[in-house]
Amino acid sequence: MIPSSRRGPTPMNSVTCHISISLDGYVAGPHQSIENSIGEGGMRLHEWVFATHGWRAQQGLEGGESSADSEVVDRLTQGVGAYIMGRNMFGGGHGPWDPSWRGWWGENPPYHTPVFVLTHHQREPLAMEGGTTFTFVNDGIESALQQARAGAGESDVAIAGGAGTVQQYLARGLLDELFLHIVPVVLGAGERLLENVGDPTLEPVEVMASPAVTHVRYRVVR
Amino acid sequence: MIPSSRRGPTPMNSVTCHISISLDGYVAGPHQSIENSIGEGGMRLHEWVFATHGWRAQQGLEGGESSADSEVVDRLTQGVGAYIMGRNMFGGGHGPWDPSWRGWWGENPPYHTPVFVLTHHQREPLAMEGGTTFTFVNDGIESALQQARAGAGESDVAIAGGAGTVQQYLARGLLDELFLHIVPVVLGAGERLLENVGDPTLEPVEVMASPAVTHVRYRVVR
Asked: pLDDT tens, A24-33?
């Protein structure tokens, strides 16, 4: 294992995003569909997570690696008080909501905080088990951020994805931190992360490396 | 400075490539031309080099930073016994050679080894000052590699660029190591490195990080 190293604290109440990205810049593979939102080969971006002790422990499983990757997994949910996600990440297809669709994660989703879902279609909030509530926001990303900040209190707001949602927050100058998990696979096609984001100034403030993944935390400089 | 860390030695007589790459995967900016082969904004990928003590010392200049970046610069030419480059990197336009064109670097180029230039047009070898000789190879990349290996002896062969040349060696399974200098700028357009390379298996074997750049050395796994 390559030892971890860090520079500088995360500012309080930051707007953060962490996301796995291929070496050629994709966060999902080609031919995404409602059934396969991650695209062909896209799961290769996430296998490092499943190998960690931290992730397995969260699932009630034994074993797994205790590595820099595991340390990263342990940290990802720490200090997050609310999430924002695009509609595709919540699922349920396009157009007006089918109220029977309650997300991909079952009755006890892994968020345990308020989650704000960007949508063009109104829907009543959905309270789930374990502290997760889904609130559907149809008046824009700034409104969603304002509501998420209020819901998060002094904790951070995390942009959960997908790429289009991250792009909008980054392009609008609303993201404080981008934590990339750079996975050494070449997908060749799919959904790129860093398109339509303008020319942000990014400063690497922390690098953690394992034989599987290079994790680089970038501060978005204003 | 983030401390450097390393895992595993470079194999002897490797075929290596080091190249600066933007966070969105470009190794040159848009609107490349014969006059501006690096493209618009492309120089931003290389500014980290000019800031180092190591580069300045090579130019006979004082000062500069002694950082992980400087350590990387010092290492880049160590152990390299021959270079291979595409014709655009040597310059002089397209078509049959104008013998008055002797490269971008003056009479004493910074290579100080044999350099093999890929071309479709015959040209006699060109011996420069300081140990650099340019040999023009017009029978393919494998021939160039064979000649470069012979010229390098027990030292490494470095693919100097540009992107198309790196892509060909990587796609053909002839590259042993890819050392990426990941620069946190978003160019938005330009020449991508990791296109048309198939699906190589890359293993991060060393990570060195500075506040400016994250350097990741990948072994290409056979």
From this structure: 999 999 988 8
Name residues 71-110 of chain A within 8 A of B (Cβ): none
> ∠ CA B69-B75-B81 to the nearest 5 degrees?
145
Residue spans of beta strands (DSSP E) within B38-94 = 80-86
> pLDDT tens across A144-182, in order?
999 999 999 999 999 999 999 999 999 999 999 999 999
What residues pair up with B5 in beta bridges, in sequence order? B207
Q: Do B142 and B189 meet the contact criterion of CB atoms below 8 Å apart?
A: no
Instruction: Please tell me the distance from the alpha carbon of residue B169 to that of residue A113, in angstroms, as a whole number.
Output: 49
Residue B118 host element (H or E): strand B114-118
B196 CA: distance to closest CA in chain A (Å): 8
Within 13 Å of residue A213, how many CA atoms lie on the same side as its CB?
A: 29
Nearest CA in chain B to A6: B2
A125 touches chain B (CB under 8 A): no
Residues of B in contact with A206 (CB under 8 A): 2
Tracing tokens 């690497």 back to the chain, one arrives at A204
Share of chain B above pLDDT 70, in %: 95
φ, ψ for residue A164, nearest 5 deg: -60, -40
Whether the predicted pLDDT of B101 surpasses 50 = yes
In 3D space, the residue among B147, B48, B28, B139 whose CA is nearest the CA of residue B88 turns out to be B28
Query: Is the CB of B202 less than 8 angstroms away from the CB of A185?
Result: yes
Distance from CA of B201 to the nearest CA of A (A): 7
Minimum CA–CA partner of A171 in chain B: B186
Chain B residues with CB inside 8 Å of A23's CB?
A: 180, 194, 202
User: What mean pLDDT do residues A42-70 have?
Assistant: 90
User: How far from B204 is each of A1, A40, A210, A215, B123, CA to CA, in Å?
Assistant: 11, 23, 8, 12, 39
Cβ-based contacts of A45 with chain B (< 8 Å): none
User: In sequence order, what are the beta bridge partners of B118?
Assistant: B86, B137
Task: Tell me the whole-structure pTM to 2 decimals.
Answer: 0.88
3-state secondary structure of B144: helix
Restricting to A residues 177-206, those with a Cβ less than 8 Å away from any Cβ of B are 180, 182, 184-186, 188, 192-195, 197-200, 202-206
